[in-house]
Write a structure and sequence with these properties.
There is one protein chain. The chain is an alpha/beta fold. The protein has a single domain (9-126, 188-331), classed as Rossmann fold. The chain has helices at residues 8-15, 70-78, 100-109, 127-135, 143-156, 173-185, 203-220, 231-237, 255-260, 265-272, and strands spanning 23-33, 43-54, 59-63, 85-90, 93-94, 110-113, 191-195, 223-227, 240-245, 248-254, 323-326, 329-331. The strands form 2 sheets. An 8-stranded mixed β-sheet has the order 6-7-8-3-9-10-12-11, with helices on both faces. Strands 2-1-4-5 form a 4-stranded antiparallel β-sheet, with helices on one face. The longest helix has 18 residues, at 203-220. The radius of gyration is 21 Å and the shape is globular.
Length: 338
């Protein structure tokens, strides 16, 4: 089957939510550093006990402040970083193992769209050969058919066949991101991690790329983990939202519930700082006291308690569990009524 070629039956299958999630991360933990030879080295707790799922044709938004662990989670799922604890499942199969066949399958079925499209492209090579690199993985496309397939991939992202012969510097920022998406699609992936994929683009171009992502996941059945600090963009694209703080999940649920009716005080603070699209709706800005704690020395209990406006002494005892507060809506806060 050529890349991007899907039958109507497969499209219908991908649009339905599968009983088994496409991608599952179970209790992911990532620590950096460790003991030195002569002294105890500092350990950075980048991600702690994070579990999430992404279904076929589903877009899940991962939001939080810089340093909250968003990009680390994306790289753990893709296998670009080894996990300290936990596992990653693809169609219910553990793919975090060291076997070569599993790594090759992960590279084919899971791809990354980078934040900086220019830095992710080789400035000395034309676009066509860079896209062809993906087609060459596992020899999925015969060499004689690759030129035709490259044209089809470029058309999928709104570019023309003539763009294949250009160098990266000949494109605008939005066009370069389209090239990056075409390159990611070359392996016919089932899952994409988009890591701040539109943050470097102008607002008008952002809207075009977001529309492209929405079209691709609906038409091709691609699951997507969309990492962003921009809540307006997440609201326009994602089905579900996960809110991170210091490497832990604070709140997760349907995008409408989390972004319109947030329960966790950290989510409420994030939303209060985001401009509203409704000019008649005024938000009261919630200012958090102090600086975010160091991930090498996280607070006991709830990691958000040192900045939380409603924290009590009990918040320092143990990390709060993710309790259900509505349909598929969970919050890690002992002060929120369940």
């Amino acid at each position: 089957m050529r890349p991007l070629a899907r039958t109507a039956g497969l499209r219908a299958l991908y649009r339905r939510r599968s009983v088994t999630p496409l991608v599952s991360a179970e209790r992911l933990t990532r620590r950096f550093g460790g003991g030195g030879l002569f002294r105890h080295a500092r350990v950075v707790h980048a991600v702690s006990d994070v579990s999430l799922t992404v279904g076929r044709a589903e877009a899940v938004g991962l939001v939080g402040e810089s340093g909250s662990g968003k990009s680390t989670i994306g790289r753990l799922i893709l296998g670009l970083l080894p996990v300290s604890e936990g596992r990653v499942l693809l169609d219910g199969v553990d793919i975090a193992g060291p076997d070569r066949e599993g790594r090759a399958e992960r590279r084919r079925r899971m791809q990354l769209v980078f934040q900086d499209p220019y830095a992710s492209l080789d400035p000395r090579r034309r676009i066509g050969p860079q896209i062809e690199d993906g087609l060459a993985i596992n020899n999925r496309v015969p060499r004689a058919q690759r030129r035709t397939t490259i044209k089809a991939l470029l058309a999928q992202v709104g570019l023309t066949a003539a763009h294949a012969d250009r160098f990266p510097h000949e494109f605008s920022g939005g066009q370069r991101q389209r090239v990056g998406i075409a390159r990611a699609l070359a392996t016919s992936p089932d899952f994409l991690v988009a890591d701040e994929a539109v943050s470097a683009l102008d607002v008008s171009v952002q809207a075009q790329i977001i529309a492209l992502f929405a079209d691709l996941r609906t038409r091709l059945g691609i699951g997507m983990l969309f990492i962003s600090h921009d809540l307006k963009i997440v609201r326009s694209l994602c089905d579900r939202v996960i809110v991170l703080y210091l490497g832990r999940i604070m709140e997760e649920g349907p995008a409408e519930d989390v972004l319109e009716r947030p329960k966790h005080p950290y989510t409420q603070a994030l939303l209060s700082a985001s401009p509203s699209l409704d000019p008649t709706r005024r938000r009261v800005r919630i200012l958090l006291g102090g600086d975010p704690p160091s991930p090498s020395n996280p607070p006991s209990g709830c990691v958000f308690r040192t900045r939380c406006p409603i924290a009590i002494d009990a918040c320092a005892a143990t990390p709060p569990p993710l309790d259900t507060v509505g349909p598929n809506h969970r919050v890690a806060c002992i002060r929120v009524e369940v």
